[in-house]
Amino acid sequence: MDFIRHIGKKCKGSKTISRIDIAIHRLQRGCLFFPIGYTIRSTMANRVIKIGLLGSGTVGKGVQDILFQDAQELEKRLGLRLEIEKIYTRSPQKKYWFSRLPHKFTTDPNEVIRNPVISIVIEVLGLERREETRDIANYIVDALKSGKSVVTANKAVLASYGEEIHRAAVEASRDLRFEAAVAGGIPIIRSLGEGLLPDHVNQLYGILNGTCNYILSSISDHGKTFESALKEAQRLGYAETDPTADIKGHDTRDKLVVLLQLLYGLFVKEEEVATEGIDHLEKVDFDYARQKLHSNIKLLGYVRRRDKEVVARVSPIMMKGGHILARVDGALNAILVDSQYCETMCFVGKGAGEKPTANSVVSDVISIAMGHHTQQRPIGFQFNELLEEKDENKYYIRFVVKDRPGIVSEILGYLRDNEVNVDEVLQLKHSQEEKAYFQKKFGFKGAVGEILPFILTVEPCREVSVRKAIEGIRRQDFLLTGPVVIKMLPNLPDVVTHQNVGTGL
Ligand SMILES: NC(=O)c1ccc[n+]([C@@H]2O[C@H](COP(=O)([O-])OP(=O)(O)OC[C@H]3O[C@@H](n4cnc5c(N)ncnc54)[C@H](OP(=O)(O)O)[C@@H]3O)[C@@H](O)[C@H]2O)c1
Questions:
Q1: Catalytic residue ranges
Q2: Quick one: which of 138, 216, 356, 405 is 20 to 30 A from 232 by CA?
């Protein structure tokens, strides 16, 4: 045993260390681990892993619950003891576990980051301002430099400082895990990073923000306006008081940037990912989608690869009503993956919440403690925004106009001049109430009866052509608000067939 430990020290940082480390872990632990709870033990004492926690909010509390309440059960299953040594938070007295274990809490982050007995640091701090990501990145890098492995749930920090953080982990030969940073309780990071390691992901489409999905489902399924759906999401605690990061698509973009790091080893800046939110969508868009186009609209973060080139986008997408993503409702998350070997698969589940997110965090801790090492990042890929421009797609364009003769032919003129062919012009019967809503929202001074919403769909064409046509149309004085353009992807890869859905196609 001493001999193996000796070799282990000598080899630290080299490639062989991982296997030797695992051997040492297993010998020291004196057990073999079986995922369904069977453990073969020796009489040796179990190894103790000391953990430090940065943050004690929703996720931090969930992690404390699991590690304090389930410690014995986990020890029996794992053959090692996971022990929280210190918890950093600004206001310890307000925390649930403070009254039971006050000595575990500190208001000094260095008591976690530089604590010599701690080997794994969990970072679950919240953000009050985006600029705070720099401080949090510093905590993570310092912890890695101090020889600790790090588990973080923070997509914003990884999106902004991922390259620096990953480099620090490699240089320190420590593990960095972030299962909870994307789709909270869904084990998507491990599935993509390990489960699909030999495979090649061609496309990925994700409903990655539960707040947006809740709002869109409320509009689509319960006929709410955007404003009332947002208010309800805030009342139920799904949306922040300031919902900007969610409804503008920034949170989805952060998660997509993290997925690009994982899937293709690409460190793309957030602003390089073209991002559109949901705050320009109206109930009328969902009425047209359902009643005229048998479709639904979801905010998707998506990635497409062609050979070694990759593009990523965040935008509302119109898809067939029977598509599996179209039917993921409420605050759920979903990730549809299309890969070369496994073809199409879909992960659906809770993307947030105390317990699901804490489970992901603790599973990362266990994985590190068990000596499972992080994979090498893929190399050789390039981010190419222009890749999306090469594709031809159908588009939905919605107008709300002050009615007068000749409007449609003027619009068609702009589209024709940019080589965009119209497929259909469609109009629902709109109530006075609906028109009055637009009158109020867009401050229209004329009569309600003058307001006319309608849509058109265009045949597959390049995005740039639609964009140029819309630039011209946008200048016209008959518009109450800018046209809303939504990409239509009726042929998204799916895991359900027409037969087993039966409707909506
Ligand atoms: N909540 C979820 O369901 C969920 C899901 C997936 C990922 N995440 C990620 O997990 C992380 C934690 O989320 P959460 O929901 O647990 O956040 P939270 O409830 O707002 O908790 C935030 C924690 O961070 C501390 N904190 C906030 N601002 C700070 C600052 N400027 N300096 C020092 N400490 C600060 C708070 O300290 P005090 O309490 O002492 O003030 C609290 O302990 C975030 O990165 C989030 O994106 C959350």
A1: 255
A2: 356
3-state secondary structure 211-276: HHHHHHHHHHHHCCCHHHHHHHHHHCCCCCCCCHHHHCCHHHHHHHHHHHHHHHCCCCCHHHCEEC
CB burial class (10 A; 0-12, 13-18, 19+) of residue 62? buried
End-to-end CA distance of the chain: 64
pLDDT in tens, 17-35: 344 444 444 444 433 343 3
Tokens 């914003």, residue?
156
19 CA distance to ligand 1 centroid (A)? 35
Give the start-end residues of each E strand in 93-226. Answer: 105-106, 120-123, 149-152, 176-177, 201-207
Ligand 1 pocket, residue 331 CB under 6 Å: no
What is d(CA 358, CA 180) in angstroms, rounded to the nearest whole number?
8
Ligand 1 atom 20, closest CA: 126
CATH (residue range 199-351):
3.30.360.10
Angle, helices 2-10/17-29, rounded to nearest 10 degrees: 150
Q: How far is the CA of 312 from the centre of ligand 1 (A)?
A: 27
pLDDT in tens, 247-303: 999 999 999 999 999 999 999 999 999 999 999 999 999 999 999 999 999 999 999
Domain boundaries, the chain: 46-177, 199-351, 391-488
The third-level CATH classification (topology) of the domain covering 46-177 is Rossmann fold (3.40.50)
Atom of ligand 1 nearest to the CA of 154: 45
pLDDT at 379: 86
Q: Indicate the fold that domain 391-488 takes in CATH.
A: Alpha-Beta Plaits (3.30.70)
CA separation for the pair 329, 271 (Å, rounded): 29
The residue nearest atom 45 of ligand 1, judged by CA position, is: 154
Distance (Å) from CA 142 to ligand 1 centroid: 19
Pocket perturbation via mutation, ligand 1, pick of 86, 88, 90, 252 by most ligand atoms within 8 A of CB: 90
- Please, are residues 220 and 297 in contact by the beta-carbon 8 Å criterion? yes
Closest of 22, 3, 292, 301 to residue 155, by C-alpha: 301
Is any ligand 1 atom within 6 A of the Cβ of residue 109? no
Whole-number Å distance, alpha carbon 205 to ligand 1 midpoint, is 27
SS3 182: coil
Sign of CA dihedral 103, 104, 105, 106: positive
